[in-house]
Amino acid sequence: MARAQVSVPLNIPEVQVLKSEINQRGELIITIESTKEGTACRICGKWIEKMHGHDDWVTVRHLPVFGRPSYIRYWPRRYQCLKCEGKPTTTQRLDWQEANSPHTFMYDEHLLLQLVGSTIADVSIKENVSYDSVLGVMERRIEKKIDWSVYSELSTLGMDEIALKKGHRDFVTVVSVRLKDQRIVILGVLKNREKDTVIAFLRSIPQRLTKTIHTVCCDMYEGFSEAAREELKGVTIVVDRFHVTQHYHEAADDLRQEELRRLKKELSKEEYQQLKGSMWAFRKHPSDLRPEERSILRILFKHAPSLKQAYTLREELTAIFEQTIPKTKAEKKMRAWIQRVKASKLTCFDRFIGTLENWWDEITNFFHERANSGFVEGLNNKIKVIKRRCYGIFNLDHLFQRIFLDLEGYRLFAWQPPDVA
To answer: What is the pTM for the complete model shown?
Structure first.
C-alpha cells in the first residue's frame, strides 16, 4: 500500500530541493542546492559570478516538520574575484542563514518564539539543542539596546525601579513607554536609579522622539521627577495613583493594627475572636465585602469608632480618584477631604497629607488625562516573573533582551496568516 504523503513548502528563497530522506534517528534531512548566481567579494565587495568549486558539505537545523527535527544540507559554492589582487575566492553568502550559524534564520526565530515565557535551559531541552546554541540565537537576533529608528512617537513614558536581588538594595531603573496604540515597549534598563543616570538616558533619546513625549508616569522618587522636569521640558509629570493609594491605605491600616493591639488587651478572648478576619475585611472596598465580612466590620467599628472614621475617609478619597473630573475640581474636593481629616482629630493620615501637599501638582495631574503607571506596574510584575523563572538575571543586557522578547516575541516571531484581499 502506498504511503499517504503531503507537500510542505520549504519557504527558503533561491534554492531547489534535490532530495529528502529520514535518517535512522527519525530526523528529516533535506538536501538542496542554491539557484542564486554569484556573491559579493569578501575583499572589494563587488559582485562576482565566476565559479571556483565548492566548500565542504554543510548541515544546518531548520524548522521541525510534523514534530520531527529537520535539517538543510547543501554544498556551498565558491566564487573567484578576478579584479582583486591574488584573485581571492569567497563562499557564497545565503539570504536564509547567517555565516557560520548552525541554524537557518527561520529556526532562529522558532527558538526565539519558544523562549517567550520560558527559559534558555527549558528550550534547550525541548528542542534538543545546546544551551549555548539557544543563548547564541538570542545574542545574535535580539538587540541589547532600543532601536530608536523603528519608532515615530513615544507618547507616555514610565519610570520605576526594581531590585535585581530580593532583600538587597541593588536597584536598577526600568524605562518603558506606552504607545498610542497601547503597546508597551521597553526602552532601557539602567544600572541604578541615580538622577544623573536617568538624565543621561533621557538625553540619549533622539530629539524627534522627545518632542512626542507628553506625559511621564513615576512614583514619588525625586530622582525620576527631577530628571524628567529638567530634560523633558513641558511634559506632564504624573505620580501614579497606585502609589498614592498605597500610602493612604497603609495609613489607615497602621491605625487598624494599633487599635487591634489595644482591643486584644481590653476584650475577652471570646470577644476578640469575633474580630478574626477583620484585616482582610478592613482592606476591602465596601462593594467587595461579603455579608460575613460586613458583620465583622460592624463589630470592629463598635469597639473602635476611630477605625470607622479612617475607613470612611479612606473610601472618600478613593471615590474622588474614581471620578472623571477636571483637575481644578479634583483639587477642590481633595482640599475639602484634608479639612475633614483634620476635623476628625485622626492623626494616622498626617504623614500622608504631608506627602500629598509635597507632591500636590504631580498627584493631581492624574486628573488631567487620567494617566497612570498601570502599564509600568504590569511590566514590573512581568519582570518579577522573568527573574523568578530564570532564577535571577544580573546581566542588564540579558535582562533587557528577555523583557523585550516577552513583550515583542509573539508579534515578531509568531506565524501570522497572510492578508487576504
So the answer is: 0.82
